[in-house]
Write a structure and sequence with these properties.
This protein is an alpha/beta fold and 228 residues long. The protein is 56% helix and 9% strand. The chain has twelve helices and five strands. A five-stranded parallel beta sheet has the order 2-3-4-1-5, with helices on both faces. The longest helix has 20 residues.
């Protein structure tokens, strides 16, 4: 009996080994602690007084793994449960293990997606860059960013730009000087009336979404496209 476990997710690999062994005593070998002849000898053991102990072999040695795959039939036909734990297996090794009836299990780690900068969307929107705004909005949605968060950031930007029409400094507006500077530069892209209408749109869409009378994502996309 042979199981080959590969991949980079060590936690899942060791959890799977525990499931296969099921709490039984077992032999465990790392590189340098065993060799091919010793393992073949164990594979040919026959049970005399109960089950044979499982054998777990951890190896990162490519030559040793190649030798194991070339002798896969011996381990596959054995009454002993063999578990080979490796980082990865080559196509030819996979073919040899498969031909020997081995079970192959791969546990890879999921790639971590880079975090999405929600304020890049806000900057594109306040700069009235329609294409960039739409691309970043779709990226945010595809990355699973909550529509409520997108709404909050954009509605806040509109609110602050409206505020700039009645104040003359970041301190007076009560916002960070860096944010004030960006909004002040982009303020020229919107009239006070447009910002007022946008503010109403954001408020109404929020309440209607809460009431369940519209799809928040679709409504946000509509507001962005129609306002730019």
């Amino acid at each position: 009996m042979l199981t080959v476990i590969s991949g980079k997710d060590s936690e899942k690999k060791y959890k799977r080994i525990s499931e296969i062994i099921g709490g039984r005593e077992h032999h465990s070998y790392a590189d340098g602690e065993t060799d091919l002849s010793m393992l073949i000898s164990r594979a040919k053991d026959t049970p005399l007084f109960g089950d044979l102990l499982p054998v777990v072999v951890h190896t990162e040695d490519k030559e040793f793994l190649s030798s194991l795959s070339e002798n896969a039939g011996v381990f596959g036909e054995s009454a002993t449960q063999f578990i080979f734990v490796v980082p990865r297996i080559l196509k030819e090794e996979e073919r040899l293990f498969s031909r020997a009836g081995a079970t192959s299990e791969i546990f890879e780690t999921k790639e971590k997606k880079e975090s999405f900068n929600i304020f890049a969307l806000s900057d594109a929107f306040t700069a009235r860059d329609r294409m960039k705004t739409w691309i970043l909005f779709r990226e945010a949605i595809d990355r699973g960013i909550d529509s409520n968060l997108i709404h909050g950031v954009l509605a806040s930007a509109v609110k602050n730009m409206r505020l700039l029409f009645s104040v003359g400094s970041a301190e007076e507006a009560g916002i960070h000087p860096f944010v004030y500077g960006k909004l002040k530069r982009n303020q020229k892209h919107f009239s006070e009336e447009e910002l007022s209408e946008l503010s109403k749109d954001f408020v109404h869409s929020y309440h209607r979404a809460r009431q369940g009378t519209l799809d928040f994502e679709i409504e946000l996309e509509r507001i962005l496209i129609s306002s730019l």
